[in-house]
Amino acid sequence: MSDAGRSAGLDGFAECERLLAEGDPERAVSVGFAPADRRDALNALYAFNLETARVRDHVSQPLPGEIRLQWWRDRIEADPGSEEPGQGSPVAAALVETIRRHDLPTDAFDRFLEARIFDLYDDPMPSVTDFEAYAGQTASTLIVLASMVLDRAEAHRITEAAGHAGVAQLAVGVLRLATIHRRRNQVFVPVDLLASVGTDAADWLAGGEGAKRAEAAMAALAADHLEKARTHLRAAPRQFRPAFLPALLTSRHLAKLDRDSPQPVGPLDRLWFYWRSMRG
Question: Domain limits of the chain?
Fold first, then answer.
């Protein structure tokens, strides 16, 4: 990469940190528990996730969204020697520099972006198996990539833990974002899971009587995968713990959601949980 490209990447890291602080505080705070020389790269990965998650908010039809996701593919696959790989995007410039610096696999980003196409349409999630695959290509992949930044050589040791942690994190995310998803006419709750509790996608979108049963089923799915993630994580090297902090926080969200009047996890509660998780 040229000196100009590296300079753009360095400027981009500061923008990534700013975006995360505003739009994804759970991951932003977790970065502070990573070694100082890895924080820029983690900020870039998480800002990329945030930017691609927001694509639907910025388009009125799926096709422009697909074009935007393709734009990200083009940036990731651009010639590393190009003058401006980010094409004016500070986040893209920082991401490209991160991929180069840490030798991250571009095919993982390709699968991530392919999965994000689902976000652009109103088709309901067909099955729990499809949901787990989607989570594996998005939330779990992000944990694996973050782990590669932390220790590229040993990251293969956390793939099982990351797989389960990503599913748990996404399942709880679906519950936390249910109001937004309903407004968008999106159904991330698997159709077969809805059927198993005697309801359907239309009832979920309307917040009908079956919605509470579906919420309980999604919470159970999250709890099951979280427990499996914890089991695998016990045998994993401790240097990977920062990559898992936002997913492990799923346990606090589940506890809050289980109350009659659920409240979000507050900043001090989150910080204390991260601190204990790093030492537990």
Answer: 1-105+114-121, 122-264
Please return the burial class of 6, using the count of CB atoms within 10 Å of its CB with bins 0-12, 13-18 and 19+: middle
CATH architecture of the domain with range 122-264: Orthogonal Bundle (1.10)
* Chain segment 45-86, per-residue pLDDT in tens: 999 999 999 999 999 899 999 999 999 999 999 876 666 666
Q: Look-up: residue for tokens 């940190």?
A: 17
Q: Considering the entire predicted model, what is its pTM?
A: 0.93
